[in-house]
Amino acid sequence: MFEQCGGMHPTLACSLVLLASISIGGCARAPVGIYADASGATRYEFRSDGQVFISVLGTTVSAAYEANRDRILVSGPQGTVVLVRKADRLQGPMGLELLPQPKQPAAPRRG
Hints:
Shape: globular
Largest sheet: 8 strands, antiparallel, barrel
Helix content: 10-25%
Number of strands: 8
C-alpha cells in the first residue's frame, strides 16, 4: 500500500518533505568578506567560521555572528548588534550602512 514512499505513510512523507524545505529555506547565506562604511571608519570582516572582526577608528575587537534570513546577529563582549541585509549592503543601528569591499589579493609569501 505505501510502497511508493518506502513503506512510509503518505502524510508522514509529505510532512518530512515540508519540514526539510522549510529548514533549507530558513537558512541564510553568511556575509563572508569585508564590509565597511563609506568613510572607512567602521569595518566588519566576516569569516566563514562564524567569527567577525570589527574595527572602529583603528580599534579592533572580535565577536561571533549568526546569519538568520535577512538578519545578521553580531554578539561580543559589548553586546549584540543586529545588521539587516538590504540587497548587497548591511544596515545597522544609528544609520550605519556597510558596503561590501572588493576582495584583496593575497599577500606574497616570504620565505
